[in-house]
Amino acid sequence: MTHTPRHTWQLGDHTVNRIGYGAMQLAGPGVFGPPKDPDAARAVLRAAVAAGVNHIDTSDFYGPHVTNRLIREALHPYPAGLCIVTKIGARRDAQGNWLPAFSRQELVDAVHDNLRNLGLDTLDVVNLRAMFSVEGPAEGSLEEPLSVLAELREQGLVRHIGLSNVTAKQVGDARRMVPIACVQNHYNLVHRGDDALIDELAAAGIAYVPFFPLGGFSPLQSNTLTAVAARLDATPMAVAIAWLLQRAPNILLIPGTSSIAHLRQNIAAAALALPADAVAELDAIAAIA
């Protein structure tokens, strides 16, 4: 099902433009260590906000600490209306491996690290990232870590709670515990496992934030996307973004880049209207081996 794109959606207390910015790529290779050119990274952040981006996705485990400090250096004091969404639930070891960080103390420390490095008194939205499997969403109880986040919200350190890398069952269980502002999962033209969940969240007014808009394509799937993009005189990334925007009105995008030119291309994709025949061809990509 496709929808006529609307340009904004609610995310916590903020009405945000549906194309945001993901800061992960501003860290060094493997999302570990500093970027080669910190000045260029800060310039991309300023260009994003100047272009109308008012939703930035980050985490203190990017780097670690790197992207949050770059965001603070580039944008603080933050403009009115800017929604900064961060994540907790993981940590990095000295080799850059991603490890679960689900204990009470780790979650509390993570919130305080994000506050300090972003220069904030309260975090707009904190996504709890489930880490039951390194391969993707896997079942497991989120009750204890969500209760910690709920306490931090009561203390005024967190305004809204979201979820990342989660199953539909975990989303349902979480919504019975606390209000959920957003769900952030891997979803794109070929990775369609959350189709039903997206529609359920749209009906409830909850944002869905997919990552990796071009991840996991087979060569044949990539060829189909490239052919559609060529017909429309657009890049494959722009078409993938446009398809996501037309897929459901609650989808908020956070494409990341360290290039101002690519940033502008990604934002421009919001204006790309896909004709019905292109949508039908793109919808069928998931079934191509």
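[next item in queue]
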Amino acid sequence: MADAHHCPTCGAPLRIQNRFVTVVTCEFCGGVSLYDGAHLDPTGRTAGLVQIPSPLYLDATGQLGGRAFRVLGRLLYEYDGGLWTEWFVEVEGAERAWLVEDEGAFSILQKHDGIEAPAFEEVRPGDTIRTGDLDVYVDEVGEATIVGGEGQLGAGLLPGETIRYVDGSAGESEVSIEYGERGIEVFIGRAIPREALVVDPEVYG
């Protein structure tokens, strides 16, 4: 059951939908709050979001590789090459996951705690780095800014923050390492064929 709360900025009702939610945006005023499992703490930031075409949307449901999923929130990133979107999703049989959408391609990634990664300054495209028990071939090294967000998120990242990132692969696995204000986070997952993502039609009214 979702937990009932109220936006500390405007007082609008908010329902926390997943126990891994750590950041909540208000759909009425756009205020961003941190959530510690019991209380909402306003950050003073707002989460404006540019709308870009996507088969996904906030609160969307459907099937992902034959497993039911639901979209809880999203973050929009801007980098030198354009924009990409990360959807925070609740997937049947998985605790929490991010569905990354970049130029029409999708990947499902999960955060893995306790994995060491090299310092950002030590990594270059074309390198092979050791991350946990994986030898990761580095495809891209860059910097991105979170330019918007909505819904409920399972990450401590906030709109306006800048992260540095390393993306690569280890066999069939995709690996993304994010270097943010709160430390290093490692995400591991795989590409999702477009036909494996089935989104239910959006219901209006």
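[queue empty]
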